[in-house]
Amino acid sequence: MLRIAIPNKGSLSGPAGEMLHEAGYLQRRESKELRIVDPENEVEFFYLRPRDIAIYVSSGRLDIGITGRDLLIDSAADAEEILPLGFARSTFRFATKPGTAGGVKDLKGMTIATSYEGIVAGHLADHGIDASVVHLDGAVETAIELGVAEVIADVVETGTSLRNAGLEVIGEPIMKSEAVVIRRTGADGEDPKVRQFLRRLQGVLVARTYVMMDYDCRVEQLEKAVALTPGLESPTVSPLHNEGWVAVRAMVPAKEAQRIMDDLYDIGARAILTTAIHACRL
Questions:
Q1: Average pLDDT, stretch 132-157?
Q2: pTM value?
């Protein structure tokens, strides 16, 4: 069986479970379950702390795992990213009191508090900055007020909590993270079970990104219509009973669907509709 590590809690857990369910895999019904077997798909899922997943995968005890890119890099584990999943996105930034520093080059000799010392230490080394890094679990905003550090490095979404603490973001982002599928570095990239698992997840990503669009249009407007809905390879075009009309079907990006429908209507297309895609293989 393919042995897969899944986050057992936090912002990664729910979306990962939903994606796997959409991909046709059995998922746990209770949060207390730490291991389940999906015999039909020949997969065994292990629900682990997100921070530990890269370590388990790098050991070879588990074949692949889902974790955050930030946690993978911070762990320094012998594992690699093989598929980004598009959820749990976050940005890591430095922050400090106004006037303390303007960017990473100003951090020389300072103390930086963070929950991700591996990421921060690597970033500082990449820029040739000699600074101290202090590990703190949980919220680090109070580290500056309490004199533990002059700068913090943390996930920044809206920046509201930083502003409430009297801090400002400085410099360029340290990194951008999201949920990713990982495997042990150097593992067999042609493993058929892993490839099937990745195809299923890629199918979910495509299904979430696209909708199927159907419409009717006159033959003389077909080229303009196809230019608006080129599909992935090419749209499907079928003649209608009424001479001079055709039916067109194509996948289009979901976020652009309404605009495309307006443009199709303007060139004379009618009976325009969209349908959600639940699964696909490209």
A1: 89
A2: 0.86
